[in-house]
Amino acid sequence: MSHVSTVRRSIVLKRRPPGEPSPADFSIVEDAIPTPLEGQVVTRTIWLSIDPYMRGRLREQQTYAAAVQIGEVMTGETVGEVIASAHPDFAVGDVVVGARGWQTHSVTPGAQLVKIPTGGAPLSAYLGILGMPGATAYAGITEICKPQAGETVVISAASGAVGSVAGQLAKRAGARVVGIAGGSEKCLWVQDTLGFDDCVDHRSMDLRRELLAACPNGIDAYFENVGGEVQHAVFEQLNAFARVAMCGMVSQYNATKLPPGPNLGFVVGKRILIQGFIVSDRPERMVDWRRIAAPLVADGSLIYREDVIDGLDNAPEALTGILAGHNFGKMLVRVGPEPT
Amino acid sequence: MSHVSTVRRSIVLKRRPPGEPSPADFSIVEDAIPTPLEGQVVTRTIWLSIDPYMRGRLREQQTYAAAVQIGEVMTGETVGEVIASAHPDFAVGDVVVGARGWQTHSVTPGAQLVKIPTGGAPLSAYLGILGMPGATAYAGITEICKPQAGETVVISAASGAVGSVAGQLAKRAGARVVGIAGGSEKCLWVQDTLGFDDCVDHRSMDLRRELLAACPNGIDAYFENVGGEVQHAVFEQLNAFARVAMCGMVSQYNATKLPPGPNLGFVVGKRILIQGFIVSDRPERMVDWRRIAAPLVADGSLIYREDVIDGLDNAPEALTGILAGHNFGKMLVRVGPEPT
């Protein structure tokens, strides 16, 4: 068989690209295909997945996962065939998925591999729609965007591995789904083949106007893959109680310094939750709070301070002052005497 | 009694301030104290609350609540005494809390008033720690910040009506609590009287360094009241999985145009949820997703597209391309043949 070889080729990181990575930032090394030690499995790679998150691994600073070191094999998910096994659960010929990196062969503890069925979905699907990108779309849509029937959901990078699945899931939930993609070919595919209700080209001269036309009722949920100008345009059109799943901001992964704000790149890797709220949305909170707080105020466990000004006519001045931080404690106007 | 009068004084909006509001933006009108119609209650105002949110009501655009119109009485929460009642639940002498505006007397449907006990907490407390500001702190801490013992929680406007309560609640949950306030007098009170672990003066020459010193283990939750430079400094020091309760951004309420980003002012009024996530944090998602998606892929209900490049050596080029948006569908490298 043509793929029987004794040589393994691996792509290692040669230097950290400051901006856009290029092939010259990597080098190819060859060694012998390893033999498995106890508990290990050797695979030959069939498919290697290329994903935007990989740009983060090229940076010196650790993000949510360890950086790839200089001279180290580049990380990546693969589908491979077992060619030698010293693990009881894996036999030669099994097909497995795992994060085995940019190399033709790998040796791995069996525990890090998942066997996948052959004869069902194409093997490559386990790196896409049935793999990490598909699960990412599923998590963002079901756990964060939570689209309701009739709502409008916007998906950026809509023709991509994650966006294409996210939009289809939102559509299945009964939402109006609007994609954002680069170029008319991608936009047409998103609309005609994936069945999104509309798709806006982010290269358009007037992204905001086109987005507004595609989302006449505003935007209730946004699945964010790109950041930058697209994010700004979407954020301006978010409705009250909108949910934003921050999955990626690929437009700035190559940036040597962060584009001007809102720049929320840190929200993705750190899994930050930012939640706006207005107490009066749920009046029962006030009732709960009075019940909880009244005894704590009475016994001095909770401390408060008031800043009192006398006379209704001074209310405007009090407002000016509180906006400038001149008050010290809760600002109150004494309008009339306490009951006697 | 000195407060028996037949004249009502009200403060109405005269013009919309472009920036900082001043007393000249309001005028005082007098009319007769009204008499109650069926179901109404007339109160004389004892206490009027002054809160930062009021700045939003002066804008022409509706925010989450209706704008105050020119000539209309300025809105605000009050504590008042019932002086006339045509509602069976209220009698003369009852003390009530409600949003009755900047006026010495009001006439109100009884359903909009809540009776409060006399002889317990001071009446003014029902506009502060036992009122809207206290309930706001409670909502933000318990529903969004969710401090755990040992975590670090930062509270801006820490000496204010909301911040002072938020910090005390976080402290009761066992967190290390660091306030941010303006000036040494407020900072000392926050530390010595409220019992926060530390308090940083936002007027400091080096806010970032002082915040870092006060939060040696990073910041796990942030209760946001101010925005601007304070927000930037805090955001830089957030830990993974941090929670940000966006309650207010008072530093920009007077702004005629929004300060440069990150500018998340819209998040508060619109109650936006922004959530970063990484799919691999919960590996069971992948298992769930494969189970759900496999039959949908098999029957064609879920559509996907692949963009394939041949040969491991081309992986770097594929990564460059995906970051530039050159791929169309899931990017894959075919490293070796499928099993035969």
Detailed description of the structure:
Two copies of one chain form a homodimer. Chain A has 340 residues and is of the alpha/beta class. The first copy, chain A, folds into three domains: 7-127, Quinone Oxidoreductase, Chain A, domain 1 (Alpha-Beta Complex), CATH 3.90.180.10; 132-276, NAD(P)-binding Rossmann-like Domain (Rossmann fold, 3-Layer(aba) Sandwich), CATH 3.40.50.720; 284-334, no CATH class. Chain A has nine helices and 15 strands. In chain A, the strands form four sheets. In chain A, strands 6-3-4-5-7 form a five-stranded antiparallel beta sheet, with no helix packed on it. Chain A has a five-stranded parallel beta sheet with strand order 10-9-8-11-12, with helices on both faces. In chain A, helix 2 crosses helix 3. The longest helix of chain A is centred in the last third of the chain and has 15 residues, at 284-298. Chain A starts with 6 loop residues before the first strand and ends in a 6-residue tail after the last strand. Chains A and B meet through strand 3, helix 2, helix 3, helix 4 and strand 12 of A and strand 3, helix 2, helix 3, helix 4 and strand 12 of B. Strand 3 of chain A pairs antiparallel with strand 15 (330-334) of chain B, so a sheet runs across the interface.
